[in-house]
Amino acid sequence: MNIGEASGRSGLPAKTIRYYEDIGLIRPDRGDNGYRDYGADDVHKLRFLHRSRSLGFSVEECRQLLALYEDKSRASADVKDMATTKLTEIDRKIRELTELRRTLEQLVHACHGNERPDCPILEELSEG
Amino acid sequence: MNIGEASGRSGLPAKTIRYYEDIGLIRPDRGDNGYRDYGADDVHKLRFLHRSRSLGFSVEECRQLLALYEDKSRASADVKDMATTKLTEIDRKIRELTELRRTLEQLVHACHGNERPDCPILEELSEG
DNA sequence: TCTTGACCTTCCAGTGACAGGAAGGTTCAT
DNA sequence: ATGAACCTTCCTGTCACTGGAAGGTCAAGA
Question: Is A103 near chain B, with CB under 8 Å?
Answer without folding.
Answer: yes
